[in-house]
Amino acid sequence: MENIQKNKRELIGLIVSDKMDKSVVVQVERFVQHKIYKKYMKRYKKYHAHDETNECRIGDTVKIIETRPLSKLKRFRISEVVKRAV
Fold first, then answer.
1. E strand or H helix at 31
2. CATH code matching the domain that covers 8-81, chosen among 2.130.10.10, 3.30.1360.120, 2.40.50.140, 2.120.10.30
3. In angstroms, how far is the first alpha carbon of the chain from the final one?
4. For the chain, which residues make up each domain, given as ranges?
5. What local confidence, expressed as pLDDT, does residue 2 receive?
6. What is the value of pTM for the model shown?
7. Which top-rank group of organisms is this from (predicted)?
8. Residues with Cβ < 8 Å from 39, sequence gap 6 or more?
9. Which of 1, 15, 33, 51 has a 20 to 30 Å separation from 39 between CA atoms?
């Protein structure tokens, strides 16, 4: 099924909430350069992602992939768990 999907955004982020049933909130970090001062700054964005098996926990690093709208906020699903929380 992974090979069929083309041009889907894949992001890697940290799970910050798993309180919902079959859903998690993933915080994705990116670096942007300041226009004037040329310093690199961290920017964060939170995405709601679908976790069918409820296997992910807070602190896990996961890869999420774009999918069709699953609910009002969910447009991503968990593709794989990159690293488990300690």
1. strand 23-33
2. 2.40.50.140
3. 30
4. 8-81
5. 57
6. 0.86
7. Bacteria
8. 33
9. 15
